[in-house]
Amino acid sequence: MAESRRQDFRRVQKTGGDSFVVSLPKSWVTDVGLRAKDPVAVLVQPDSSLLIVPRRDIRTSSKSEATLETAQGLDRDFLLRHFISYYLAGYDIIRVAIGKSDPGLRGFIREGIRRKLVGVEIIEESSGGILTQCLSGYIDLPLKKALERMAIIAGGMLTDAVSVLQGENTGMSGEVVERDDEVDRFYHFLLRQLNIAVRDRSVIQEIGLASTRDCLGYRLVVKNVERVADHAASIATEAENLGNLSEQAVKKIHEMTALSKKVFDSSIASLLRLDGKMAEEAIAKSKEVLQMEGKVSGEVLAPKMSGAQVASAKLMLESIRRTAEYGSDIAEIAIDLTVAEPQVV
């Protein structure tokens, strides 16, 4: 393959009329398994270069199908996890053959699809099973827009989670935990887009990215945002055990949370704008959150606390700090993506 990495200049030939041709390197044709008259796709890139891809690597219009067979006594969560796996893999049609298994299984799968997935339609349902169609969705909801919405929900969860400490809005903790399902829906939707794009390079531009390198970076970002939402749900749960904190302690927690959220919001913005300076500022602020954790811990922890309350306080502060750390990780990915890929010569 070393030979194919050298610059290979070829002349553009005019074949008559308005048609131009250029020959392909024999070594490349052999490496990708092409033969004479095999079709290839020619894709125009953002930098005006051309990407040549064998047609077999292009996602066709035909629908891919998968079937999940259930068995007596099969764990419901096991089945839902496998359904999600086929969804993430990019299958268009997923059948769930229920047969005479658990009579409540169909309702469980239907509810799981509603809570966890975006773009899945149940097009047929009977006592014997469920037939679903998974829509790609990347035209109506591009990847960056979906990521932005996902991050807004996760950030809002963080703010509302610490408000549970004030006890002014009963039921807020449950609302925050429920919103974690909405973040999971975007998480799975974005992974599906990225998985399809990695297999089909013609989709990369359609979802708003430039290269397969971007797919890897965004895969890590999406996971980090999902983890921020998980920590927000944890904060809301632990905050319910800390209803007797002093006003000063609550204020300090809010300050630490506000800074952590600022790191997270700035990191997402730096990624979407590919702003390296903003990313560096977010990383610097994440270190301030780490320094705050010890000081706030001294304000929050009190001798009169029970063991369970001490544990809840420590877990809550750790989750706030971890949110800033995830933001810092996202900012580092943003910086990585601002660097142009090396030209193969």
Structure report:
58% of the residues lie in helices and 12% in strands. The two termini are 12 Å apart. The strands form three sheets. The chain has a four-stranded mixed sheet, with helices on one face. A two-stranded antiparallel sheet has the order 1-2. A two-stranded antiparallel ribbon has the order 3-4. The chain is built from ten helices and eight strands. The relative contact order is 0.09. It folds into three domains: 3-57, Pemi-like Protein 1, Chain: D (Ribbon), CATH 2.10.260; 65-134, Ribosomal Protein S8, Chain: A, domain 1 (2-Layer Sandwich), CATH 3.30.1370; 143-338, Phosphate transport system protein phou homolog 2, domain 2 (Methane Monooxygenase Hydroxylase, Chain G, domain 1), CATH 1.20.58.220. The chain is an alpha+beta fold and 345 residues long.
